[in-house]
Amino acid sequence: GKDLVAAAIHKRSARKNFPYVPVNMGAIASELVASELFGHEKGAYTGASEARPGLFEQAQNGTIFLDEITTMDEKTQISLLRVLETKTVRRVRGEKDTHVNVRVIAASNENIEDAIKAGRFREDLYYRLDVFRIQLPPLRERQGAISLLTDHFVARFGDAYRKNIRAVSRETYRLIRQYPWPGNVRELKNVIQRAVLLAKSPELTPELLPQRIRDADVSENNRRTDCSPIRLGMRLGDVEREYIRMTLSSVNGNKVQAASLLGISRRALYNKLRRSNLM
């Protein structure tokens, strides 16, 4: 999710025609971080047969996205602070500084204030990075994003695997929307990739989803049954009114999504809302 947001910021900025370089700091061995970020000169270490620009130089005039920044060791944090303050980098074993004009976007799954208190992240680097903060809520709190990302990944993996997937069934959408997605966007991406790989028809159906997602639906239905405001003896009009209210609540008031889930047009939904005094 963070990478998608960072890429979107880059694509909508004046730097969009220049490189976007995503870097997962947690995936780089500590002894190679400096070389990867800042580059190295020929002979800087065993195997360095030629000079190589680092990722900051490769992102010149564009954007570099540093994910999982709390995994940096203190030496790398000091070097990054220098880059941010001077807007220059020096390659490993280099003798001159190179000016870099780069937007830096940094992210972490960890609470950085807690990392500072634990002595694992420099407070001065934190305040240097914390110019404009974006708090990205978990996927389960972004119902609209779940549908958009599902459509995006279906198209992406459909092309990649040459599968002619033309639709996602309504029941599949419902299961996907109600699942809590503890693994956020990465988990959703993997689930859709698996479903597309297994699909034998032009539609993604519920049986293509992992069992944990279908089991979560059973648990959710049981929970809703225990506290459902719809009960035997209610008038039919009251049942419809309450069901519409519950549907709207499940999609955070999004009337387009609610109409889709109810299987009616948006105009019909508005008419029902007026008649039921839910507008």
Summarize the structure in words:
49% of the residues lie in helices and 9% in strands. It has 279 residues and is mainly alpha-helical. The strands form 4 sheets. It has a 3-stranded parallel β-sheet. A two-stranded antiparallel sheet has the order 2-3. A two-stranded antiparallel sheet has the order 5-6. Strand 5 and strand 6 form a beta hairpin. 22% of the residues are buried.
Low-confidence stretches: none
Reported for the largest beta sheet, the result is: 3 strands, parallel
Q: How much of the residues is beta strand, in percent?
A: 5-15%
Cα separation of the termini: 34 Å
- Tally the helices: what do you get? 13
Which descriptor suits the 3D outline? elongated
The run of helices and strands is HEHEEHEHEEEHHHEHHEHHHH
Q: Please identify the structural class as seen in this structure.
A: mainly alpha
What is the overall pLDDT average?
87
Rg, Cα atoms, Å: 25 Å
- What percentage of residues falls in helices of 4 or more residues? 40-55%
Number of DSSP strands?
9
Question: How is the largest sheet built, in terms of strand order?
Answer: 1-4-7
